[in-house]
Amino acid sequence: VDLDTAKQELEEFIPHVRNISDSSIRKMAGRDLARFKQFKKQGIAVKFGRFSQKENNQIRKNVEEFLLITGIDSAEKLLFTSRYPEDKDTINRLKAEHLFCEKLSEGIPRPWRLIYYRARKMFDPNNYKGRYTKEEKEKLKKYHALHGNDWKKISEMMSRSNLSVAMKYSEIKSAINYGPWSKEETQKLRRAVEEVIRKRMETEDANSLSSSEKSHREILIDSEKLYQKLPWTEIEAKVGTRYWRQCKQKWTTILTNKMTKGQQLYRGTKGLQAKINLIKRLYEMKVEDANEVNWEELSNTIGDLPKAYVQAKFYKLKVSCVPFWQKKTFSEIIDYLFEEKLPELEEKL
């Protein structure tokens, strides 16, 4: 398929495809286009965003089956072949012979590249090694000075995953403040968020809207755009003294205070009622995975709040109330909260 045709055909499944590089489009035409068309016939849409538990299980199944077929020792050898130079040629030959790309993406309606990255994150033994020591942070700074943003090289030198070293460096690259936010920092954050939202709005085709639609559009900025996916690394750079996670958490707090007019919704009897409503609504939804929850809709159960606030409150609830929650599925956690915690909260109220 020539490049223009590939772009045209892929656009049906990936609206932002024209922002992707030509080399990536060529790869997607080979790896994804036929799969996407097959999923369309089955009435299945191409997905983006967080992977569900079901998709993670499918990746595990695909990897395990491929290891059985090929006899490759481990998922690490399969997905991080460059770490095993002596076996590299054999592994690459087996991957080509047994159609690794097709096998890995089987049953998952997403671009192959995202499935591959997810698999690497799931099966990288260097991905979950706990907190960085002071010595590791100093090493990371030194390696970055030598190798720049070559995270693959740095991750191998530190025996940490690419994602881990890149994210940790974003936290320690400057004099990050971990104390309370100053008035000046908060103003910088507000200005930074305002700038990125304005920029986003300007890039959209506002000229085609009528004057009445434009006035309605301003209202929508308040209710939706203020806590949709924002470019937090860009906002981090504008604030300068905080890393992106701190910026995101602080912005959620600012929005929550604005939207609730400063009321403490999670204190006293209001807090108990909010927890009760949250548990009941989650139980009624009967979903199997946290990614299937419509958090926007759920936030109205507690009040007009950003979904990140509600997600944070749910996380706190499961950690403090559900024993061994890490070993339970999402639906088991909800069942436990409904059967064991809810009666206790209602009695307390």
UniProtKB/TrEMBL annotation:
GO terms for molecular function: chromatin binding. Residues 124-172, 173-255 form the Myb-like domain. It holds the Pfam family Myb_DNA-bind_6. Residues 124-161 form the HTH myb-type domain. InterPro entries: Homeodomain-like_sf, Myb_dom, SANT/Myb, TTF1-like. One of its GO terms (cellular component) is nucleolus. One of its GO terms (biological process) is termination of RNA polymerase I transcription. It comes from the Eukaryota. This is Transcription termination factor 1. The lineage of its organism: Eukaryota, Metazoa, Chordata, Craniata, Vertebrata.
